[in-house]
Design a protein that fits this description.
Elements: E1 11-13, E2 19-21, H1 27-51, H2 53-58
Antiparallel strand pairs: 1-2
């Protein structure tokens, strides 16, 4: 069976509603995006494990 090749593009929705290609933003903007992702991930994981202590104990 032949391999299928895919092309993937990642877009970000900026606060002003504009969608931009992830690879077109500056390093400073990427730094801000990653910081935002880390913050949201931490908040969501904290909320989840606060509600599911049994899952936290498995870690």
């Amino acid at each position: 069976m032949a391999k299928t090749e895919y092309t993937v593009k990642s877009f970000l929705d900026k606060e002003n509603g504009e969608s931009v290609d992830f690879y077109s933003i500056t390093q400073e903007e990427k730094k801000d995006v990653f910081a935002s992702w880390r913050k949201r991930l931490s908040e969501n994981m904290s909320r989840y494990y606060s509600q599911h202590l049994d899952e936290y104990e498995k870690l």
